[in-house]
Design brief:
alpha+beta, 2 domains, eight-stranded antiparallel β-sheet, 9 helices, 8 strands, about 40% helix, about 30% strand, globular, disordered C terminus
């Protein structure tokens, strides 16, 4: 079961909420929070080809340069700083396998909180009642024995959930018509493939615009999308900063 499939459950249906903790620094969100005595919060996971995952983390309470130094020590993690705050930043971690939050989603749970604080990791996930909670937790704990299940409770959920089509439309509403055109053309031409099938200049030529204009529109579109995705997560941070 995918994360998006889990999001289709009615937001007012009861769920079983599970809470797991871990202290193993092998997981970057745990290890980094312990090394820097900071908070590391997962905002979104996107699966990538070849068993990789793009994990977007808000890190609060530590200079971004030091965070990247720590994550660079993990052989299975590639780190990019997307946005910098006064005492933290928004990071993208490209992780090769071993992603406990995504594994929970595959088993049928929907992760709601994934965070590391001062070396203590915590995951809170919701399991729809139409699934058997032990069928989720037991195989997970077998695969990840360093996690402890510390709580399991039934509750009503009122978490805002968007269907894929509604989410897509909400994203597009945050872009100008020109930004949508540039972004879609770049995507269709393979600009976001790895390795890239075309350059920014190729896309600019296709649209009959300058390379500088292409860069202006593509960066603005990407920033608007990231702002939409992560604004709620940043606003919910204890400092309330954006």
């Amino acid at each position: 079961m995918s994360i998006l499939e889990g999001q289709r459950d009615n937001q007012t249906d009861p769920v079983v909420e599970i809470e797991l903790t871990v202290q193993n620094a092998v997981y970057p969100f745990v290890g980094v929070s312990g090394e820097e005595h900071c908070r590391v919060e997962l905002a979104k996971i996107i699966p990538r080809p070849e068993a990789q995952y793009a994990e977007f983390f808000n890190v609060l309470g530590a200079p971004p340069a030091r965070i990247k130094r720590h994550t660079d020590s993990y052989e299975t993690v590639e780190t990019s700083l997307l946005s910098e705050y006064d005492d933290g930043g928004l990071f993208e971690f490209i992780v090769s396998g071993n992603c406990p939050a995504y594994r929970l989603a595959e088993l049928g749970a929907l992760p709601r909180t994934v965070e590391g604080v001062d070396g203590q990791g915590r995951i809170v996930a919701e399991i729809p009642l139409r699934y058997d909670p032990p069928a989720v937790t037991e195989p997970f704990l077998e695969e990840y024995p360093d996690f402890d299940l510390i709580a399991k409770r039934t509750k009503e959920t009122h978490t805002s959930m968007l269907t894929p089509s509604t989410f897509q439309q909400s994203l597009l509403n945050n872009l100008t018509d020109r930004q949508q055109e540039v972004l879609q053309t770049a995507f269709e031409m393979g600009y976001y493939e790895w390795p890239r099938d075309c350059t920014g200049q190729d896309v600019a030529d296709e649209l009959d615009i300058t390379s500088a204009t292409f860069s202006e529109h593509i960066f603005a579109a990407e920033r608007n999308i990231l702002t939409y995705i992560f604004k709620k997560s940043v606003n919910n941070c204890p400092t309330g900063r954006e």
